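Hey, I'm writing a tutorial for new members on how sequence and structure tokens pair up, and I'd like a real worked example in the thread rather than a made-up one. If someone can provide the structure for the chain below, I'll link this post from the tutorial.
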Amino acid sequence: MLWLIELRKHAGFFAVTIGLAVTTSVAAALFPQQQVLEVIQTLTGMLVWCASAIYAAADLVRFLALGHDVLLHCSAFGPLRSACTKATILGAFLVALHAATLGGGAGAIAEAVGAEAPTVFTYYVVAKALSIVTYLATVVLSALVSKVFRTRNLVVTTFTVVLVAMVIGQTIALWRLGAPGTDFFFIGVGGDFLSVNLYANILPIILTAPSEGFVPPIAGLSIVLNMAVAVATVLGVLLLSRFRRFDFVAL
């Protein structure tokens, strides 16, 4: 079965990334007095997420835009359905990675937020899962747009530019709509838990002041924007696949 093939294909990579996240989290929990372990845990979380996001995008663009995985292109499911299966499996692994990294910091977050813990953890599960869906849909759309070119370098360059432009555009929209009086924002996570991360597509950003609470009103806007972008990109994928025929010759 197609999903089983994809599951086996990606299991090794995500076993390593999830294993690293869990190992560093356990080490930091067992030796809380060793601050260097907390730094290693944070850096490891950032690195495994960057690597995993790039890995997922690379696999989808190799299939959709560069014509790799010939066996899947020859299957009866068709390229778009195969890409959806790929994206679903990759999304499930990314959610599992999020659960591992969130679990590693659950104790510190729960201690910081107190009675707001259920709201904070619910937000983190829903917001991150939605950001993953939005990201993978954006990757698929960017790959289909780049497929119009016939050389590998142009395809990869176009894919990268379109994907980065869409993520940056969503980040700026969240910034200007949600906090027009703020002069800047931070990408990533803070050292102390003062507010939840906002998600502009897959990108975590900090755009709130501690006085606004652990789950500020702008957190809802970030979810709405991700939902809107996810719907728009899925519609874009369906339109492109319906009105433009692609050949999947390997580049």
